[in-house]
Specification:
With 140 residues, the protein is an alpha+beta fold. The chain contains three helices and seven strands. The longest helix has 15 residues.
């Protein structure tokens, strides 16, 4: 009987914590490794380059995102997003997403380093929209 109770308790813990590692699939950013962040929009066409303080804010917001699964290609064409360029040549592409999550995240770090997934983060979406609607936006 004690053995069954132990098995049930173990299974309960495994089920309880099964989703805890999901955000480990979402690649993290480091502000110190970033060369530039450009927020862009297709409607209307414009772009905003972030300064060092804005890059730190962007990274902090992004790193709080919640992983929502692997990319599938469903969702439509994004209206705005961001291109994040790293010192080592790798790049992040973060787009607003019209599917079942807030963001589409793509990381390209080389031929063997590719991540395509979805994430939820309304605060980051709002931040990007505010930057596009504020001062400093220019037509490409």
């Amino acid at each position: 009987m004690k053995k069954w109770i132990a098995v049930i308790v173990l299974l309960a813990f495994l089920l309880l914590f099964a989703g805890c590692g999901q955000n480990e699939r979402l690649p993290k950013m480091s502000a110190g490794e970033i060369v530039s962040i450009e927020i862009w929009s297709n409607d209307p066409f414009m772009k905003v380059m972030l300064d060092a303080e804005d890059i730190r804010t962007f990274v902090k917001l992004y790193n709080a995102s919640e992983y929502q699964g692997e990319g599938t290609g469903v969702g439509g064409t994004p209206i705005y997003g961001a291109i994040i360029s790293y010192k080592d040549g790798s790049e992040f592409y973060i787009n607003e997403f019209n599917g079942n999550a807030d963001l589409e995240v793509t990381f390209v770090g080389g031929p063997d380093q590719f991540v395509w997934c979805y994430a939820d983060n309304q605060a980051l979406l709002d931040y990007m929209a505010d930057k596009l609607n504020g001062a400093g936006a220019s037509e490409p």
